[in-house]
């Protein structure tokens, strides 16, 4: 079962991780930092893997927010067309 962002107007991602309640902006900012650290290098393989995994989770959080926003827009546009 895929997890979607809440489209009820609250906008919080529906997930069971420590990122629950993380805003899109917070997740994106942390993701940018993770990418910067990976690109800078100088980390061990284990640290790089942990950063990569964190980046993947943050990307999923951001995608859930974007999917929820798209669904809300689609609902509004559909209501306007009817």
Number of helices: 2
Q: Radius of gyration in whole Å, from Cα? A: 16 Å
Strand content: under 5%
Q: Give the CA-CA distance, first to last residue.
A: 31 Å
Please trace the helix and strand order, writing H or E for each element.
HH
Average pLDDT: 84
The structure class reads mainly alpha
Helix-residue proportion = 55-70%
Stretches where pLDDT is under 50 for at least 5 consecutive residues are: 1-16
Shape: elongated
User: Biggest β-sheet: count, sense, barrel?
Assistant: none
Count all strands and give the number: 0
Account of the protein in words:
This protein is 66% helix and 0% strand. It has helices at 24-40, 45-81. The radius of gyration is 16 Å and the shape is elongated. By secondary structure, it is mainly alpha-helical. Mean pLDDT is 84; it is low at 1-16.
Task: Name a few traits of the molecule.
82 residues; mainly alpha
What layout of secondary structure does this protein have?
Blueprint: H1 24-40, H2 45-81
Summarize, please:
The protein is mostly helical. Helices cover 66% and strands 0% of the residues.
